[in-house]
């Protein structure tokens, strides 16, 4: 494991510094200590967390809050949810096979997952650079948006292959 740099909240830092965060570059012995075992590394990670979900129900609750946040704040997430719902409804209406329905379902989920990751990454970037311009912030956001675009194009392709032929047959035979 390669730990180049750790950023920990200032209230957990051993040395005081200005601002909200203290950047700590561990020396070789600290790096060794962090990487010595997965359990140890995980306990270090948890120590840096502001809050840890106490149980499984809480974990699910936070996860649903994330989905709810994306749905209420991200226009693209709502658009993809709507298109996904239409695709699944069309699949049922056109009576496509179970395997094809599964492919549509996974594809819809894939796009929504990419949207959620994009939203999470945007928040982390904004948290890091606030309202200042940074080339790396631009790259991170553009690449995350690019990932969603590629996912959406793949979904369009899947819909074209699975849903379009039976839809055209239905239209031209009626
Ligand atoms: N701090 C920043 N520094 C440099 N460029 C930024 C910064 N914040 C945003 N940008 C640029 O503005 C674009 C739009 O930013 P935004 O935060 O709306 O992301 P987005 O991925 O386009 O949002 P959404 O997915 O909600 O449409 C980014 O893709 C990036 O090119």
TrEMBL record:
ATP-binding listed as a keyword: yes
CDD domains per record: UDPK_IM_like
Binding site for a divalent metal cation: 122
Sequence positions that bind ATP: 46, 62, 122, 141-142
Sorted UniProt keywords: ATP-binding, Cell membrane, Kinase, Lipid biosynthesis, Lipid metabolism, Magnesium, Membrane, Metal-binding, Nucleotide-binding, Phospholipid biosynthesis, Phospholipid metabolism, Transferase, Transmembrane, Transmembrane helix
Cofactor: Mg(2+)
The protein, known as: Diacylglycerol kinase family protein
Organism: Euhalothece natronophila Z-M001
């Amino acid at each position: 494991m390669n730990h180049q740099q750790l950023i920990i909240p200032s209230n957990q830092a051993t040395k005081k510094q200005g601002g909200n965060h203290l950047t700590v570059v561990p020396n070789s012995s600290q790096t060794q200590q962090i990487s010595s075992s997965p359990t140890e590394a995980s306990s270090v990670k948890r120590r840096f967390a502001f809050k840890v979900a106490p149980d499984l129900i809480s974990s699910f609750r936070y996860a649903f809050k994330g989905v709810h946040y994306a749905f209420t704040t991200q226009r693209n997430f709502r658009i993809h949810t709507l298109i996904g719902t239409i695709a699944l409804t069309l699949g049922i209406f056109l009576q496509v096979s179970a395997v094809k329905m599964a492919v549509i379902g996974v594809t819809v989920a894939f796009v929504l997952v990419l949207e959620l990751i994009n939203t999470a990454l945007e928040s982390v970037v904004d948290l890091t650079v606030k309202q200042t311009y940074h080339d790396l912030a631009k790259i991170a956001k553009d690449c995350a948006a690019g990932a969603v675009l590629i996912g959406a194009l793949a979904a369009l392709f899947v819909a074209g292959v699975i849903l379009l032929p039976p839809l055209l047959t239905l239209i031209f035979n009626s």
